[in-house]
Specification:
The structure is a single chain. The protein is mainly beta and 504 residues long. The chain has 3 domains: 142 residues, no CATH class; 123 residues, 3 Solenoid (Pectate Lyase C-like); 160 residues, Single-stranded right-handed beta-helix, Pectin lyase-like (Pectate Lyase C-like, 3 Solenoid). It has 2 helices and 36 strands. The chain is globular. Its EC number is 3.2.1.15. It holds the Pfam family Glyco_hydro_28.
């Protein structure tokens, strides 16, 4: 039996090799709500077949929500039907389908079905029929001949339209103007160039193959900037964005040394949009800047900066200031099923409201953070839940600037968080930050209230670690803290200025 993943990766670039395709394309591209995708054009050079519902869909999922018993397969080059099986623990479990092929491309005549997502490819070089079914938030179905339909990346409604496939950054602007959906196949971002796209309403920006961002030592540079309303951003199976971080990492991050792009991927002013199924690796410093967005959903992403764990001569990681998600001025954000390996905050909420972070797996960094919070900021109604933080300095953290004022942090919940190998603080609230570091002298200019820690379990490691560390300026600047089912082994505890602010 042929290995499923190498076959898919090997064939996909061949299918998508043409610079542009304005004829065939996606019949529909699903959202989270709705029932069914429409049909696409009946002809085209290359086009994608159906994608059926389910929250795991294209990329599958590992960890707390794995695909359930997926049957994976592709027809090979002029070969009979081939199938492969992925259990609920396997990763990647990219597709739930069975396939047969009569074409040298190996993507014709595919039928796909799956309760956790389904996918089929179709080529107009033969009379292909693709059907996909799945049960997500809504049951979905897609079918077509030649240029088929995509129905539901997340079990929702499909959006029709033409698709352009591009292989060079210079082709993107014209493709966005001509087509509602744009597929970036193995595009390289040249030095000092930016992939800047406003995704059309109802349209999609898709990534295939490996996107490499060439070395640009410039702290003002941002490689990827995306905007849009009711837009879809997603990676196809095997798609990777590589920031070549090893060319920048010097242990100093954005604090000095080699100039580095300050944020690698900006989502700016996006509304009612989704980003999913992306794998990003080796970013220089901060990865995502999520700013000015409303009702944004990010799901099933793998953010891997583990190569930055390589140590310098002093034994410190070369990767530094490598936050995964920096969030500001955003109202309505849902991030779920994200796997993060980095050397700084897994999440850092700096301003905004109405956010949920769930099914997070954070390794190697500084955990799930609020702040640092500076002056004139409001943060409210933020929940971190059903997540794991491992091999990190911190797990659950709220930090405010010592010289900050006129800011409020309220209604923050950490629930069902499992921690392990935490070297500094499992639970941490500090009102003493200055220039990014604690001073030990808390102030009262920023208020923190309505904070709940529930079912925080696990362990800290080392004599210097704390299971909880609360350092507030007063019981008026910190109030209404609730702790239930806290079970963290090892380490010290500290509570200032009053024991009422800490677990009993």
């Amino acid at each position: 039996m042929r290995s499923f993943i190498p076959a898919a990766v090997a064939v996909l670039p061949a299918v998508l090799a043409r610079p542009q395709n304005f004829n065939g394309g996606f019949g529909g591209f699903g959202g989270i709500q709705g029932d069914q995708g429409g049909s696409g054009p009946d002809s085209g050079t290359y086009s994608h077949g159906g994608v059926g519902g389910g929250f795991q869909t294209i990329g599958g999922l590992r960890g707390s929500q794995p695909m359930q018993s997926a049957s994976n397969g592709y027809g090979g080059d002029s070969s009979p039907q081939e199938t492969a099986t992925a259990t609920s623990d396997s990763f990647p479990a990219y597709y739930t389908d069975s396939a047969s092929s009569t074409s040298s491309i190996g993507y014709n005549h595919v039928q796909a079905s799956g309760s956790s997502g389904s996918y089929g490819y179709s080529s107009a070089s033969a009379a292909a029929t693709v059907t996909a079914t799945g049960s997500g938030t809504k049951a979905t179905a897609a079918s077509g001949s030649g240029g088929s339909a995509i129905s539901s990346l997340a079990g929702g409604s499909g959006v029709g339209g033409t698709t352009c496939t591009v292989t060079e950054l210079s082709q993107v602007t014209a493709s966005v103007s001509a087509c509602s959906n744009v597929l970036l196949s193995g595009v390289t971002i040249p030095a000092s160039s930016t992939l800047s796209v406003t995704v059309p309403s109802g349209g999609a920006l898709l990534f295939a193959g490996t996107m490499t961002v060439e070395y640009t030592p410039d702290s003002e540079y941002t490689p990827i900037v995306l905007k849009g309303s009711n837009a879809k951003i997603a990676g196809l199976a095997g798609a990777v964005i590589d920031g070549q971080g090893s060319k920048y990492w010097d242990g100093q991050g954005s604090n000095g040394g080699t100039d580095k792009p300050d944020h690698f991927f900006k989502l700016s002013d996006m509304e009612s949009s989704t980003l999913e199924q992306l794998t990003i690796q080796n970013w220089p410093t901060h990865l995502f800047s999520i700013n000015g967005c409303t009702d944004m959903t990010i799901s099933n992403v793998i953010l891997d900066n583990s190569a930055g764990d390589e140590e310098d001569s002093d034994g410190d990681a070369l990767g530094h200031n490598t936050d995964a998600f920096d969030v500001s001025s955003t109202d309505g954000l849902h991030i779920t099923s994200a796997t993060v390996y980095n050397q700084d905050d897994c999440v850092a909420v700096n301003s905004g409201s109405n956010m949920v972070f769930e099914n997070m797996y954070c390794s190697g960094g500084h955990g799930l953070s609020i702040g640092s919070v500076d002056s004139g900021v409001t943060i409210s109604n933020v929940t971190f839940t059903d997540s794991s933080v491992v091999k990190s300095k911190n797990a659950c953290r709220i930090k405010t600037d010592a010289d900050g004022s006129d800011s409020t942090v309220s209604d923050i919940t950490y629930s069902n968080i499992v921690v392990s190998d935490i070297t500094d603080y499992a639970i941490d609230i500090q009102q003493d930050y200055e220039n990014g570091s604690p001073t030990g002298d808390p102030t009262t200019g920023i208020t923190i209230s309505g904070v709940t820690f529930s079912s925080i379990t696990g362990s800290v490691s080392g004599d210097d670690a704390y299971s909880y560390y609360i350092l507030c300026g007063s019981t008026s600047s910190c109030e209404d803290f609730t702790f239930t089912d806290i079970d963290i082994s090892g380490g010290q505890t500290e509570c200032e200025p009053d024991a009422s602010l800490c677990p009993s």
